[in-house]
Task: structure prediction
Amino acid sequence: MSTASADLRTTRRRWWGRQPIGSLFALPYLVFVVTIFAYPLGFAVWIAFHDYFFTAPGVDVPKPFVGFDNFAAVLTDPQVLESFRNIGVFLVINVPLTVVLSLVLATALDGGIRWAAGYRIAFYVPYLTASVSLVGVWMLLFSSGGLVNSVLGPLAPDPSWLVNSSLAMPSIALFVTWKQLGFYILLYLAALQGVPRELHESAETDGANAWQRFRNVTVPGVRGTTVLVLVLAIITGANLFTEPYLLTNGGGPDGASVTPVLLIYQRGIQQQNPDTAAAIGMLLVIVVGVLSLAANRINRER
Amino acid sequence: MRRQRGTWVRYLLLTLAAAVFAFPFWFMVVGAFQESPTNTPDRLLPTSGWTLGNFGAIDSRIDLLGSLGNSLIFTAGVLLGTVTFGLLAGYAMARLDFRGRGATWVLMLLVQMVPFQLLMIPLYVQITRGFGLGDTYLGMILPFAINTTAVFIFTQFFRALPQEMFEAARIDGASELRIVFSIAVPLVKPALTTVVLVTFIGPWNEFLWPFLITKDATLQPLAVSLANYISNVAQSTANPNGAILAGATTLAFPVVILFCLFQRYFTASNIGSAVKG
Result:
């Protein structure tokens, strides 16, 4: 009898765990994840494969399954293709600049520098500051009659940076590089702590100069972090919204700086076509996934 | 000798870079207090023309204090959700053995991978149409209500506490809730500070979501109303530059000041996934 109830208790304990109240503690978080992430994720896929449109509240109109129609519409839309091309332009400028500048500055900052805290604050503050604030400042700096052009004088581009269709996307790439760099510098700083001092010392004994040591000890030593930086830069590039919305006034000039997320907003919410917007979202996630895998692969092969 | 030259180059490089990084902030703050912010380099160190009028100018168009209040409510709501429910979840993950713990851990990792751009449309449909929470603070707060990075930070800190302490408390008959609040929380105060700081920045700087969900200007946080000013109102204003810079300064400075005061609590690994956009 008593063994039976003890057995029961053991089974129950094995099923519910030793502190079943833990489920209760984790429950609010689980409910949150299901309503904010899991359900919308499934819903996004559902919308993308249906002819989905907004109706007046309470009205129930059938929303038929349309297969890949939304994807076909999106893939033949020149503006969508241009938005993905723009992301390409962004990445080609942003990624090399970010990797090189952040690694160089982190190396300079590493190891017994005076005022290191001051430099760190200067590099990091743009990363923590709201995009909207900084976009406002850059907009004024790079406007036609702005400070940058008045410094450049006759060298100033015409039309000016943000209204020039071949300079709009590069300007955004430059802005984002500047804003995010501090974060990547900190990532590299942490990684540099993991590169053994002895390697630098023995390279120095072998007569390697500073550049050779940087090239052959530091760069391979932080390769893992470089992949992380690549992946994060790709994700940031794919997520651009505030910059084209404000800095280039809605992806202008003439859509030269339109981005997929800006299109998702315009198509899905302004023009009320959530189905094509959801399809753009899925395509974007696939592109980001493929690019991230490629970044990973390049690293492993070298 | 060569080494000395290397150090010199290093300082030059860092100082140059720091100047490039700090310059827009200098331009922003000086311009915010100038009657007409300069567009030429010779007036970057102004000696005259100081004014507070720019703050009045932007306040007359977007209700600066009201927007700041909305930003505070939005941020406070996210903080409240994260500190209560996130802390409980983190404690459970670190210290309790219960059914579904492994699955919760997997979910936490998956959440970090779901990109917001994919969720934007369905969340908008769900929260405005499904829940009817368009133009409400709750609708603004909901998608950020429990910061998963914060749950990770809590889990990490609770795990570092010695197991014997918890066992002793349980033998003495303390309930789990009592253990959390009388024993565990006082021991992880640094974690609490880190979480509050890291969580604060996200909603304070967030633009896209509150922009989607608020049409009513009296509910918009400062990031949204300043963006509206920049994209709509400024074009019809004679000299909007000073007002834009005044708004930008107001939005930027709470975070800059917090960072300078609590610098040591910010580490790259914590902030990376907490701050988006």
In short: The mean pLDDT of chain A is 88. Chain A touches chain B through 96 residues (CB under 8 Å). Chain A is about 75% helix and 0% strand.
